[in-house]
Amino acid sequence: MSLFAISVLATAACSTPSSEETKEYTPPEELCSTRVDSQSFESVFPAGKELEIETQIPYDSAHDTPATHNCVATVDGIQAFSLSSIPATRAAGLEEYISERGYIFDIDDSVPARASGYDVIAWQSVAIGFSPCTASELDSSGVGFMIHLGAENELNDIDALVEALGSYMDGRISQIDPKHCTFS
Fold first, then answer.
1. What is the DSSP letter of 55?
2. Residue 113: helix, strand or coil by DSSP?
3. What is the pLDDT of residues 53-81, one digit of tens each?
4. Which tens digit of pLDDT belongs to each residue from 17-56?
5. What is the Cα–Cα distance from 148 to 129, expressed in whole angstroms?
6. Residues 6+ away with beta carbon under 8 Å from 29
7. How far apart are CA 35 and CA 155, in angstroms?
8. Of the candidates 72, 113, 69, 109, which has an alpha carbon nearest to the alpha carbon of residue 94?
9. SS3 for 130?
10. Maximum distance among all alpha carbons in the chain?
11. Which residues contact 65 (CB under 8 A, 6 or more apart)?
């Protein structure tokens, strides 16, 4: 009986995550000045103690919320991921947006997906989505969105990455001033 108890204790000790493998912070419901579904980001946030978020939104002179947005989340000083939304000038779709931005990703190695009704292309550490503008006073053809994991943050769940991007897209699209881009 004592051999069984030792075996169970040893198994429990092996399966209990150490403090290095747990999140000691709470993922926020507002991420990068954008309301998101925190559960959709749960697997994107790595284990660690301290979360820091740096957001850059270049408001225009009227303080309208533009389409351009950049944000970096770090955990314990290591980049966990970055989020961005950048308007397109000519692209009418996702692959055209990737080309217009000059991103060097092999489309053949990507996984096509849908997130919150948007077309998305994903790889192991990057997901990119695109939503066309139905109108824009600034001649934007659409807005592209990206989540990019840091080199130290491995995530082998492409579906989780796509879900996080979809949540970010929902939040950012609701913030963008219509003169920058009106979405359907």
1. E
2. strand
3. 998 876 666 666 778 889 999 999 999 99
4. 444 579 999 888 888 888 999 899 999 999 999 999 998 8
5. 12
6. 35, 36, 38
7. 23
8. 113
9. strand
10. 77
11. 57, 59, 175, 176, 177, 180
Distance, CA of 103 to CA of 174 (rounded, Å): 26
The pTM of this model reads 0.83
Residue type, 58: P
CA-CA distance, 84 to 28, in Å (whole number)?
A: 17
Q: Which H, E and C letters describe 159-175, residue by residue?
A: HHHHHHHHHHHHHHHHH
Q: What one-character DSSP code corresponds to residue 138? A: T
Distance CA 157, CA 142 (A): 27
Instruction: Check residue 19 and report its DSSP letter.
Output: G
Q: Is 42 helix (H, G, I), strand (E, B) or coil?
A: coil
| CA–CA distances in Å: residue 122 to residues 22, 46, 62, 108 | 26, 19, 35, 11
CB 106 within 8 A of CB 121: no
In whole angstroms, what is the distance from residue 77 CA to residue 173 CA? 29
As given in the structure block, the two tokens for residue 181 are 């881009």
Q: How far apart are CA 45 and CA 12, in angstroms?
A: 25
Task: Enumerate the β-bridge partners of residue 88.
Answer: 142
